[in-house]
Write a structure and sequence with these properties.
The complex is a heterodimer of chains A (492) and B (1039). Chain A is mainly α and 492 residues long. Chain A contains 20 helices and ten strands. Chain A is globular, with a radius of gyration of 27 Å. By secondary structure, chain B is mainly beta. The chains are: A mainly alpha (492), B mainly beta (1039).
Chain lengths: 492, 1039
């Protein structure tokens, strides 16, 4: 009996062992296929992959970033664009009528996208020193990372004012209770980042969708211009803006920048013909893959009669006051051909507003997606920054300033400016910016920095939406998305 | 060697100690049910006849033991009352036994009524034993063993094959529905082969699955949807901690143990069933015809200062020629059939059961359907008296066409059928599908969605388990089993030209999952001093799961007719692959002790280790204890005969859940971002994903249960009631992170969820006579779920479903302390502003006729801050009521199911009537009852106006989903055996499923839901595939 029992016990142990496959190793987690830790950035390929991921935050269609009319919504407070009065455009209307709620998903998608790009850039900036590879290649990658971080913070600080300032990519519990940082400090980082980018970026763009040294300088000029106005209100910045803009203009051949010969060329919107010299920096898209489609061109800016979504179109007074000429003809679409052959004038449309021809796809393709890039800054911006900044800084108008503004006016088919007082000149330049960059996410920011929001929205056409309540400085920036304050009450 | 082992690893030594402590001559993990049970309950009787001196026993009796049908009963026990003298019948039911003078002989067999006979002068005693209708001796399978019902201390519901044999059930959930108190079964996806939600005593987990654990023949973690109900011998639902703690880490949601049929020794038995069914949609929405739609659309333009959309001529045209009835195009009457055959038999030594099942069911939405084939073979052989082997194999293949949840929400043909304008034709002038609806929807053509899109999912499973059972010595046995489960899923998706705006794409995905499980059990059962019964088992189990998957997407297909069969010809491609693995190791032991069958005690302990947690938190211990008192067996209860069973029992235990994905403790990168830098191609990159949490540990549920069981009048009436309380702590919650840290979420153990409730089960043989029989069973359960705390990390957590599509500005669901899981989040709709309230309305920028919402914080504006908890998605009460009427050869079975206490967010209606989402114009007839100034000033449907705010995420579209449904009614007729020359048994049946529904819900089906699997987001109806009304007919043939 005892022998049987001991044999049995041995058998039990043996069987147990057979089936336990080694106690200690059996329960260790198998991480095959998982990419974990900073080691991922130790090679140039890894660092570059991280850079690609950083760009992703700025454009993930329908999820985050700028590819789907989010920035159009954010800038609807300007008098150049508006949206459908009924229909499913509730969130766009909140911007147009100055009643933006924290739950508005349009702002939160841009906000999330910018911070995702910032996280990606922080990761590169913090870890590139451990990367092994050619120094110049690594430096260029780091330059792009600085550019992306500055670009993202520039959008965030303009839209939201005080924001959380994050320079580390890693999550930690302390981050969940930080407070907001005032705009001044954010601008300090933006400037130093664009300067780093200037040092590291090459003169020619590696790809059409990447910045070059000129892009960084151009944005720096724009940042200085903005800092001259609300809320920073530092007039000493206008000189820096003028000098920087001039530097870009003087080196435009080096950077490959130039004005398009005509608006037909500029707004041809042909998928097959991209990378125009007028693009200082653009976010590139590709319609072959869902997450990279640009949703601005096509249905978003077409009326329902042409199967469009009617997301955004022109405010009537703005259209009426716009000077006639080749630019106006290419900017707006006033006659619409229907599927059954009829043609309607904009006054006969359901929505009774003119639409933006700038956002029609070549051949009036009836679809919502395209591979067209979203141009974040044009060379024309640089030129007009120079005109405005030099006039503000000098207190008088130089010939350089006249030349600059007239470059744009001549292309637009308008008479050249001459012999104006500084104030009249400045008014003319601001108007020129409004017309040149209609619906290009510029007008709103001009109104904010020059504290002209109330004035511009005071006399709406009877068929345009009116502001809800009175406009105050609180309406110059938007509330942080509700996800932020819910998780961190210190951000209220 | 032994000593070294004991020193090196403490867990292994614990395991060995447990194993040494347990001996039981019983089946270990493979358990058997009532009719096939080998009588090992009282081993003392089996061989002890040899131990007595024959010389002292003067009388030799012999005879045959039979059952009520005259069939022999092999293995019946014949014993001398009050002694240990006894024997068992052989395969022909014959026995011989030497007995003393004046002895009373006891004839017994499990499941049959015992008889005591005093032989007197007879020496040949033939006995007929009648089946025991009382449930006292019913054998119930519990984890890793079995017990008779009378000795059970836990809360277990047992369902035998007989209870559902006569109903047309094609899947396990139909067997469970309404038959077990506390088990809530919801057909949340009405598609054939569609989703089912099964919950036992409420939902504990926020992130993890709340599905119960399915154990099939000892294989833990099976997929219930591929079990052929015809293969089921019996089913046990383990509900309380005492029963489920033995499954430790995965038992927190309840356990369903399924035992499949084995062959019986004797002649070969063949049975063939078939059924043919016809299905139709339960009901349709009432939509306007083209002319009325056009008129209403014009009225809306007028009210909002826009020009009319349709001309008078067009409207007259619609009136004469009509328009498109989209619902008519989407729904159809569909057919299905199922064939099932099983062959079983064997010898005394080896038995087998082989079965096959083919099912082909078309869906009620055009071009959708489900096909399934299952084959099973169970073989059991007794090599020697002590050693037996078993091999169970089954394979299954299922093909789902267009029933996938990918097609739900705005991609659902049903949603688009209620969004597309009736004035838009299906085909344009050139014979192609109309791609864009100029007036109504911004999404795809519903008919194109059905025919120009194909979502095919093929699932193949192969499962084989092999085991041996060895009786080491008297009372001690070892059971070893190894199981391999292979699962392969192939996804084939094609999106054609007309559903992608001329950008067709195709996807091929593949996933191969292999699970290996080993179970070693040592059990011991002994009766000491005829009063103390001890039944102990110790088990060591391991499980390993691996998933290798990949997927390839081809965009901009150059030739869409090649579909997913050839995706090489395309403009661009994305490919990715993934690997996932987890392992689990467990040690467990359980001891059952009963004193005189009156006082019962069960103690169990389980220890699990999982690879999903880091070292410090890897292991967890799950204890449980249960006690019971068979009051009816007490001496003071012997003088009455009304109450044959009266048991009081209580239990407490801890179970756990490791309901997270592997790698949650790691911060991994996302590798799916793609960026274009030149407009003609993409580059892949990496992005930081969700931060990992190295401190993750088990989610634990503590459960207490108190129950009473009573049986009256020898089984004529049975009552069982339980009250329970479950408390889950260290809940695994995905806390959403703010955008500035990179958004995403982090998994944490926080918070506590409670489920409290009660269950009642009643069954009665109301009327019993020779030709008429009426039995009824009723069960009801009520569970109250409450989120008790979120660990102080946040005062609420949102779970976004993404079903909303332009209608939800925030997450539709919230997890907030003081409310149940799955609480709806939205605005409180107060109807419309009425005449006389102009000034109040003005304050909000509205006028009479506009929507009025509650301004929670009184800030004079209706914003996201005014959102609050507005309803509950998870039902609180479920009941089932089954009646069987038998008249001679006719049997009528009527089954009602009721579900109460939940709300549904009716987004399908919201989209179709508000015209403020992806459907730009209202299509439902009800819009004609809106508020119209001067015409209808009492309606709560808002008027067409420029100032109206349409928040669809509000109580305006929240409806009570409570319903009672005649789930199943079936009539079957047993054909008289003489017609078939007594060679076979044939019955014919006809039945209806979902014939009647009583509910106030205005949608098609209160049971179906658009979001499946998540209890935190249950009840949104946005194009959910509705259940159907089905008529079936078929035959059952056995010979």
């Amino acid at each position: 009996m005892k022998i049987i029992q001991s044999n049995i016990i041995k058998m039990i142990i043996a069987i147990t062992f057979v089936f336990s496959t080694g106690c200690s190793g059996f329960l260790e987690e198998d991480l095959q296929g998982q990419l974990v830790g900073v080691g991922a950035l130790n090679s140039v390929e890894g660092l570059d992959a991280a850079l690609t991921g950083a760009y992703k935050g700025l454009g993930w269609t329908w999820s985050m970033g700028f590819f789907h009319a989010t920035p159009m919504g954010a800038t609807m407070g300007g008098d150049d664009i508006t949206t459908h009065p009924a229909s499913n455009k509730q969130e766009f209307r909140e911007f147009d009528q100055f009643a933006v709620s924290p739950g508005n998903s349009r702002t939160s998608q841009m906000y999330t996208g910018c911070y995702k790009a910032i996280q990606g850039a922080n990761n590169i900036i913090e870890n590139y020193e451990n990367t092994e590879g050619a120094e110049e290649v690594i430096s260029e990658i780091v330059g792009e990372a600085y550019f992306l971080r500055a670009f993202s913070y520039y959008w965030l600080v303009r839209l939201y004012g005080s924001i959380p300032l994050i320079t580390t990519p890693n999550f930690s519990e302390e981050l969940l209770s930080i407070s907001k940082t005032a705009p001044e400090e954010v601008y300090d980082l933006i400037i130093s980042d664009f300067e780093q980018a200037e040092l590291r970026l090459p003169n020619t763009k590696k790809d059409p969708g990447r910045p070059n040294k000129g892009s960084a300088s151009a944005f720096l000029a724009d940042v200085y211009l903005t800092m001259g106005g609300w809320p920073i209100n530092d007039p000493s910045k206008y000189k820096l803006a003028a000098d920087k803009a001039k530097e870009v203009m003087d080196n435009r051949t080096l950077y490959g920048f130039d004005l398009a010969t005509s608006y037909e060329v500029l707004w041809a919107n042909d998928d097959a013909n991209l990378n125009l010299p007028e693009e200082v920096f653009a976010l590139y898209a590709y319609d072959g893959v869902g997450q990279t489609m640009n949703a601005h061109y096509g249905f978003a800016s077409m009326p329902g009669e042409q199967s469009g979504w009617e997301d955004f179109f022109a405010e009537i007074n703005f259209f009426n006051d716009f000077p006639a000429g080749p630019r106006k003809d290419m900017t707006f679409r006033t006659d619409f051909e229907l599927a059954d052959g009829r043609t309607l004038n904009w006054t006969e449309l359901q929505t009774r507003h003119p639409y933006y021809n700038k956002y029609y796809q070549a051949g009036d393709k009836k679809r919502w997606f395209s591979s067209l890039p979203l141009v974040m800054m044009r060379y024309a911006h640089v030129v007009l920054i120079y005109a405005e900044a030099s006039a503000r800084e000098a207190g008088s108008v130089t010939s350089g300033a006249y030349n600059a503004v007239n470059l744009i006016r001549t292309r637009a088919g308008l008479q050249a400016l001459n012999n104006l007082s500084v104030d009249a000149f400045l008014d003319a330049v601001i108007d020129e910016r409004a017309w040149e960059f209609a619906a290009e996410r510029t007008r709103w920011f001009d109104l904010v920095r020059l504290e002209m929001v109330e004035e511009a929205n005071a006399n709406k056409n009877e068929r345009d939406l009116n502001p809800i309540g009175t406009i105050s400085k609180d309406d110059y920036t938007f509330p942080l998305p509700i996800t932020e304050t819910l998780n961190n009450p210190n951000l209220e | 060697m032994k000593l070294k082992l004991l020193k090196t690893n403490s867990n292994l030594s614990v395991g060995i100690l447990l194993l040494i402590f347990s001996c039981y001559s019983g089946p270990g993990t493979y358990a058997q049910a009532k009719s096939n049970f080998q009588p090992h309950e009282f081993p003392a009787y089996n061989d002890l006849g040899k131990e007595n001196d024959v010389n002292e026993l003067p009388i030799l009796i012999s005879g045959k033991v039979m059952d009520g049908n005259g069939d022999p009963l092999p293995g019946a026990t014949i014993s001398v009352q009050g002694t240990s003298v006894g024997t068992v019948t052989d395969i022909d039911g014959n026995y011989t036994l030497d007995i003393p003078d004046e002895a009373a002989v006891v004839f017994s067999y499990i499941g049959y009524e015992t008889q005591v006979i005093k032989p007197g002068s007879q020496t040949v005693i033939n006995v007929t034993l009648m089946e025991d209708t009382s449930s006292l001796e019913e054998v119930v399978v519990v984890g890793y063993g079995s017990q008779t019902k009378s000795k059970l201390t836990g809360s277990v519901t047992s369902i035998g094959a007989k209870e559902f044999e006569n109903q047309p059930v094609t899947r396990l959930d139909q067997v469970l529905q309404g038959r077990a108190a506390g088990v809530q079964v919801t057909n949340s996806g009405g598609a054939p082969g569609g989703e089912v939600r099964i919950r036992i005593r409420g939902a504990n987990s926020i992130t993890g699955s709340n599905d119960p654990l399915y154990v099939i023949d000892g294989y833990v973690g099976a997929d219930f949807s591929i079990i052929n109900p015809n293969d089921i011998e019996s089913l046990q639902v383990l509900k309380d901690a005492a029963s489920t703690a033995i499954y430790g880490s995965r038992g927190a949601n309840g356990v369903i143990i399924i035992t499949t049929k084995r062959g019986e020794p004797g002649a070969i038995k063949v049975s063939y069933n078939n059924q043919f069914s016809m299905s139709e949609v339960l009901k349709r929405y009432e939509t306007m015809n083209a002319a009325t739609f056009a008129e209403v659309a014009n009225e809306r333009s007028d009210a909002t200062g826009l020009l009319p959309i349709f001309t008078a001529d067009q409207i007259t045209g619609f009136r004469q020629k009509g328009g498109t009835d989209w619902q008519e195009e989407v729904f159809r009457r569909s057919f299905g059939q199922e064939h099932q055959i099983s062959v079983s038999g064997g010898s005394e030594r080896t038995t087998f059961m082989v079965s096959g099942n083919i099912l082909d069911q078309d869906g009620i939405i055009n071009n959708s359907g489900f096909k399934r084939q299952i084959i099973r073979a169970n073989i059991f052989t007794k090599a020697t008296e002590k050693l037996s082997f078993r091999v169970n194999m089954f394979g299954s293949r299922g093909e789902n066409t267009n029933t996938s949840t990918i097609g739900f929400g705005t991609g659902s043909p049903l949603v688009q059928a209620l969004a597309w304008a009736p004035t838009t034709p299906i085909f344009n002038g050139m014979g192609e599908y109309t791609m864009n609806d100029p007036v109504g929807s911004v999404k795809e053509n519903p008919v194109a969605l059905m025919y120009d899109r194909e979502l095919l999912e093929e699932r193949t499973t192969g499962n084989i388990l092999g085991g041996l059972n060895y009786k080491i010595v008297d009372g001690l046995s070892l059971d070893v089993q190894y199981a391999v489960n292979y699962f392969n899923q192939q996804n084939k998706y094609f999106y054609g030209t007309f559903v992608t705006n001329r950008n067709p794409r195709a996807v091929r995905g593949s996933s191969e999952q292999i699970t290996l499980q080993s179970t070693t059990a040592l059990s011991y059962k002994k009766l000491f001093a005829s009063d103390h019964l001890l039944d102990v088992v110790g088990v060591f189990e391991t499980q390993e799961f691996t998933n290798n998957s990949f997927s390839a997407t081809a965009n901009q297909l150059k030739d869409p007719s090649l579909s997913f069969y050839n995706i090489g010809l395309a403009g661009s491609f994305n490919v990715n692959s993934a690997f996932q693995k987890w392992t689990l190791m467990s040690f467990l032991g359980r001891a059952n002790y009963s004193f005189q069958d009156k006082y019962l005690l069960t103690v169990a302990l389980r220890r699990d280790g999982s690879s999903k947690f880091r070292e410090d938190n890897r292991w967890s211990m799950f204890p449980s204890v249960a006690a019971g008192w068979n009051v009816a067996d007490e001496s003071f209860m012997q003088n009455q005969s009304t109450l044959s069973l009266f048991k009081i029992r209580g239990s407490w235990g801890i179970t756990g859940s490791q309901a997270i994905n592997p790698y949650a403790t790691q911060s991994t990168y996302r590798t799916d971002p793609l960026v274009s830098f030149n407009g003609s191609g993409v580059v892949s990159g990496i992005m930081l994903g969700n931060p990992g949490n190295a401190n993750l540990r088990w989610e634990t549920t503590e459960q207490s249960n108190f129950g009473v069981e009573m049986e009256f009048l020898e089984g004529a009436f049975y009552f069982e009631g339980d009250i329970f309380m479950k408390s889950t702590r260290d809940l695994l919650i995905n806390q959403q992170l703010p955008g500035y840290v990179g958004s995403g979420f982090i998994t944490r153990n926080l918070g506590k969820v409670d489920n409290k409730g009660w269950e009642l089960a009643l069954s009665a043989n109301i009327f019993k006579s020779r030709s008429i029989n009426w039995t009824s069973s009723f069960n009801i359960s009520d569970v109250r779920n409450e989120v008790v705390s979120l660990g102080g990390v946040a005062d609420r957590i949102f779970t976004n479903t993404n079903v909303g599509a332009g209608m939800s500005t925030q997450s539709e669901y919230v997890v907030m302390p003081g409310n149940p899981l799955g609480s709806y989040w939205g605005l409180n709709y107060l109807g419309t502003w009425k005449p006389g309230e102009e000034s109040q309305a003005q304050a909000f920028g509205a006028s009479p006729g506009d929507s009025r919402y509650e301004d929670l914080n009184n800030d004079g504006a209706v914003t996201s801050i005014d959102f609050q908890v507005i309803g509950a998605g998870i039902p609180t009460t479920t009941l089932g009521w089954n009646n069987t009427f038998q008249y001679k050869s006719l049997t009528l079975n009527v089954f009602f199911q009721g579900v109460f206490g939940f709300d549904k967010l009716h987004y399908t209606r919201a989209a179709a009537i508000s015209g403020s989402a992806d459907a730009r114009q209202p299509v439902l007839k009800d819009i004609q009852n809106r508020y119209i100034p001067g015409v209808n000033e009492t309606s709560d449907i808002p008027a067409f106006s420029l100032t109206n705010l349409n928040f669809t995420q509000s109580t305006r579209f929240l409806e009570s989903g409570d319903f009672v449904r005649l789930k199943n009614i079936s009539l079957s007729y047993d054909v008289p055996p003489v017609w078939l020359k007594n060679a076979a048994k044939l019955s014919v049946f006809v039945s209806g499923i979902n014939l009647l529904t009583f509910t106030n819900y205005s949608g098609i089906d209160p049971e179906s839901s658009s979001v499946n699997g998540a209890d935190t987001a249950l009840g949104v109806d946005y194009g959910a595939y509705p259940n159907a009304r089905i008529l079936t007919t078929g035959i059952n043939l056995t010979f």
